[in-house]
Amino acid sequence: MNQILILTKNILTEQEIQQKLQALNYEVYCSAKIFENWGQQLDTLEFFNFFQYVILSETICESEVMKLVPLLKNRSIRIIRKVEAKVTEMDHQYLEEALIHAIISNEDSVDELRECLYALKNQRNEQSYENRKYVQLSDKVSLIRPNVLKKETASPEDNYQFLEVLHHLSTTETRILSILLEAGNQVVTRETICHQIWNEDVNKSHLASLSSTVTRIKTKFETTNLSNKAIQTLWGKGYRINPELLDRIQKNDTLNTLVSNG
């Protein structure tokens, strides 16, 4: 039997997910005390060796997750983040950087949880997470599922949606998208984008204008079937193009030309 540890600040909020996991014959241990003590007692970390999975509850704030995840990363354990509904930018970043292995929510059915955990189990048995080219998410929170997980090819109707959006981008909006497209999967700092757009020393007015323009780009792409925002905001670092959008543009000559020549 596989053991799952749920770290939380309130064990009552975990009853629903605990029951679903137990229905799948997982042995579930839910604790608020361990979470409270891990920062002060190094011995607490040895306790994690008894579990194959650890779930970080939505009651745990992001700053606390940032401190805990690097410590767990060095252990042979699958790290799962539980969210209430929406996936944050930090959760997304942690998935891409392989600091967590999956995201689930209370909305996930028993079937969805079963498939998600099974995939993580096979992943651990067959290859290290660092060698994987995609991340595993449960279905209810798969709004940021990478394009590589999708087997189907883009239909002409799908591409038409993106053509419509690109045609309605302003010159500055297209230029920003072009800069991010050229950077690929890399993050581009706000200062770098401002300098390339205005070709002068960056000031607060430029940064404010950039933020507003990026917001408009995101809004315009909401009419498409993108599974997440067109541009990812990585706080304190900069911007990065949505991997799904990047893949779509790179594989379509018309879309690529519109962005690159904009």
Automatic annotation (TrEMBL):
SMART domains: Trans_reg_C. It holds the Pfam family Trans_reg_C. Residues 132-243 bind DNA. Keywords: DNA-binding, Transcription, Transcription regulation. Residues 132-243 form the OmpR/PhoB-type domain. This is Helix-turn-helix domain-containing protein. It comes from Enterococcus hulanensis.
